[in-house]
Amino acid sequence: MEAQKALILKQDADGIPMANICCKAGIRRATDFNWKQKSGGMLPPDMRRLKQPEDGNSKLRKLVADLSADKEMLQNAIRRKL
Questions:
Q1: How many other CB atoms sit within 10 Å of the CB of residue 31?
Q2: What is the model's pLDDT at position 1?
Q3: What are the helix (H) ranges across the chain?
Q4: What does the alpha-carbon distance between residue 37 and residue 31 come to, in Å, rounded to a whole number?
C-alpha cells in the first residue's frame, strides 16, 4: 500500500493529470487529496524517514506498558510480604 501511495504521489509531482492517475490506480480523488495533505509534498524516502520515529515510539510505548505492569506486580508482592 505504501509503495502504491508513493508511486501515485510521485506521478502527481511529475505533472501527470490526477484524473488519469486515480482512474488507473482505482482510487478516488478524495483519497489522493488526503494522501497529499498527510505527506505535505514529501517524496517517498522522506515519508519513510518521517515514519521511522513513529514506529520506534510505538515500540517504546509497549515496552513502558510492560515494565509498568511488572513494577506494579512486584510492588504488590512486596506489600503482601510486609
A1: 14
A2: 65
A3: 2-13, 18-25, 29-39, 44-81
A4: 10
Residue 55 has pLDDT above 70, yes or no: yes
Same domain (yes/no): 36, 55: no
Write out the residue range of the structural domain in which residue 15 sits: 1-41
- For the chain, the average pLDDT equals 81
Q: Do 30 and 3 fall into the same domain?
A: yes
Q: Which three cell numbers stand for residue 81?
A: 510480604
Euclidean distance between CA atoms 63 and 56, whole angstroms: 11
Checking if the pLDDT of 43 tops 70, the result is no
Both 48 and 65 in one domain: the answer is: yes
pLDDT at 72: 95
**Same structural domain, 36 and 48:** no
Based on the structure, what is the number of domains in the chain? 2
Instruction: Please say whether the beta carbons of 36 and 12 come within 8 A.
Output: yes
Q: Is the pLDDT of residue 41 over 70?
A: no
